[in-house]
Amino acid sequence: MLCSKCRHPAIIYQRYSGLHLCKAHFIADFESKAKRAIRNHRWIKPKDRIAVALSGGKNSSALLYFLKKILGTRRDVRLSAIFIDEGTKGNRDCHVAANIADAIGVELITGSFEEVFGKTIDKVVMEKGDRFSCTFCRVLRGKCLNRIAHDHDMTKLALAINLDDEAQNVLVNVFRGDPERLLKPADTLAEIVPIIRPFLPIPAREVALYAYLHVEGFEIRQCPHSHNALINDVHSLLNDYTWRHPSTKYAIVNLSEQLVSYGFMPGTHADICPVRGESDLSEYRPCRML
Amino acid sequence: MLCSKCRHPAIIYQRYSGLHLCKAHFIADFESKAKRAIRNHRWIKPKDRIAVALSGGKNSSALLYFLKKILGTRRDVRLSAIFIDEGTKGNRDCHVAANIADAIGVELITGSFEEVFGKTIDKVVMEKGDRFSCTFCRVLRGKCLNRIAHDHDMTKLALAINLDDEAQNVLVNVFRGDPERLLKPADTLAEIVPIIRPFLPIPAREVALYAYLHVEGFEIRQCPHSHNALINDVHSLLNDYTWRHPSTKYAIVNLSEQLVSYGFMPGTHADICPVRGESDLSEYRPCRML
To answer: In angstroms, what separates the C-alpha of B268 from chain A's closest C-alpha?
Structure first.
């Protein structure tokens, strides 16, 4: 097929827009969507020190490349990457993340669950079972990233959450019947380094394609604990439905943003954990998982 | 299998509760759920005149039977049934509804799209195409039922909407990204006969079983226009997911009730349609469909 804009050979077809796009127009479309998200949410301001959570996978590598591309020439914004070693045997290799950060030309900060919490995720799974391992890992990883970003005086933490991830999160909250998580803002927690999500309006397959076009040597192994995640179930259901109704993921993410924008529920205020003596999320949730 | 409560042979297994139930315990469980819904929502009050929307299918027949059973001895509440002929060739037979109302011992009021709107649903579909025929039919049927209930001084209109119907409706609104319909109350519209939904907490298969146990001769044909409904798509998706996570439909309906109960958005006030000079729903939506 030919590109709907310039008649060069197309490399992708977007069902939701009806457009075939060549490499140049795909990249232009991709980057304009991510830039618009940053502008609309006012996610980046002068003097910001931004840390990208870099796992070494395709999503976070693509995000680091993209932010370096648009911010590399700005002297008033600093960009770094943070790699967290959760301690899963056979997963996550620091060298992969280090090579990518090096190739893109960004400083890499490293940390681990072992250093921050005193135990690896493998140990947590061994003690608590692997049924909720993804929930544990996600919450602890968020906590760990925040701690390291805070210690390094970062003002923003950039996560490579894409349209599919967010639509799945919203749907999981609907299937669980959780109104508070649907109404509360996700990224305005007090005393916490604010989170930015530039790839929010971009489907997972487009982020993957962008990564293949720009980054070499990223990690493609899946976490050995991820087979249990509820999100996998919702993932295939949502993809099936979106095949028949192509704009569904956008509709779900817009719904979520609108529900939050009404401001019916204020953001959670981080309390001080009485055990660990530091600010924490939602009733010391990370502490309860250790 | 044996009943989990009395060791008689079971006739149903409820995956969401883990219970096997015999006929007597199934009926007791079913009726206590519907009565609790009526009590919690304060749906029935002394001096109420209740009209059941009776299509002649299993759901509405079961509802009429159930309401007659619990209200039959009360002198302060009157029960009737309304049958609407939408004008679909080969569907809806007034005689089926008449026989059921007669067998249960309830007065039947009849009306039709032809009388109220001057055209049948077949004519509307012929003029507008059948892509949205279920939406047209649902809105016009609601309008028609309300008009007839209002003309007969009814104070409540009882619909046989069950747990599956409501969970599907909520999910369609999520997939469409429609926050207003998630936050607005469905049954408190001004100048409109209030709607009650006693089967809201009961799964479709249990309503069907209750109908098979108590009512004879109900209609089992499907409407010939229903193959296009978006709801069919959501129906199978939700059933698949509920098979793996049995309480999902309850979670979704509870979510919807909680979102509405916050009272973030007031109920719609019915305006006066400038063309037809009568109160109507959401910007004269029925008028636009004719």
So the answer is: 18
Tell whether B16 is within 8 A of chain A (Cβ): no
CA angle A152, A158, A160 (to 5 degrees): 140
Return d(Cα A34, Cα A199) in angstroms, integer: 6
Alpha helices, DSSP H only, in chain B?
23-41, 58-71, 94-104, 113-117, 121-128, 133-151, 163-176, 179-183, 204-214, 230-244, 248-261, 285-289
Q: What is the pLDDT of residue B288?
A: 63
For the ranges A82-91, A163-172, A264-273, the one whose mean pLDDT is highest: A163-172
CATH code, domain with A208:
3.40.50.620
H-helix or E-strand spanning residue A33: helix A23-41
The domain in which residue B55 lies consists of: 44-289
Residues in chain A within 8 Å Cβ distance of B250: 177
Confidence of residue A180 (pLDDT cuts 50, 70, 90): confident
DSSP A281: S
Give residue B91's pLDDT band: very low, low, confident or very high (50, 70, 90): low
* Domains held by chain A: number: 1
CA distance B283 to B278: 12
Asked if residue A32 belongs to a domain, the reply is no
Half-sphere exposure of B185 (CA within 13 A, CB side): 16
The Cα-based distances of A65 to A36, A249, B252 in angstroms read: 17, 25, 40
Confirm whether B23 is domain-assigned: no
From the list B170, B241, B264, the residue facing A237 with the nearest CB is B241
Which residues of chain A does B254 touch, with a Cβ-Cβ cutoff of 8 Å? 177
Distance from B83 to chain A by nearest Cα, in Å? 35
Give the pLDDT band (50/70/90) at residue B274. very low
Sign of the CA dihedral running A245, A247, A249, A255 = negative
Residue to test with chain A: of B174, B228, B237, B245, most A Cβ within 10 A: B174
Secondary structure of residue A147 in the 3-state scheme: helix
- Asked whether residue A92 is assigned to any structural domain, the reply reads yes
Q: Is residue B6 part of a domain?
A: no
Residues of chain B in contact with residue A170, where contact means CB-CB under 8 angstroms, are 174
> Could you tell me the two tokens for B271?
């305006």
Residue B253 has pLDDT above 70, yes or no: yes
Which among A16, A175, A242 is the top mutation candidate for probing chain B, defined by the most B β-carbons within 10 Å of its own β-carbon? Answer: A175
- Dihedral sign for Cα A122, A125, A130, A133, please: negative
Burial of B258 (0-12, 13-18, 19+ CB in 10 A): middle
Q: Which residues of B touch A262 (CB under 8 A)?
A: 179, 264
Chain B residue with the nearest C-alpha to that of A254: B177
* Chain A residues 141-170 with CB within 8 Å of chain B: 170
Whether A34 has a pLDDT exceeding 80, the answer reads: yes
